[in-house]
Amino acid sequence: MNDKIVFEHVTIFKYYQWLLDKIPDARRYSYLLWKLFKKEFTFDEELAPRDVNRIHDVRDFIKTYLNESAVPDEDYSVEDYKGRILLKRRPSVLEAILVMCIKGENFVGSDVYNAGEWFWLCMENLRIRVPDIHIFEPGVEQDIDDKIDIFLLRDYDFDGTGSMFPSDVYCRKNTSCRTLELWYQFQWYLSDVYFVDL
Question: pTM of the prediction?
Answer without folding.
Answer: 0.92
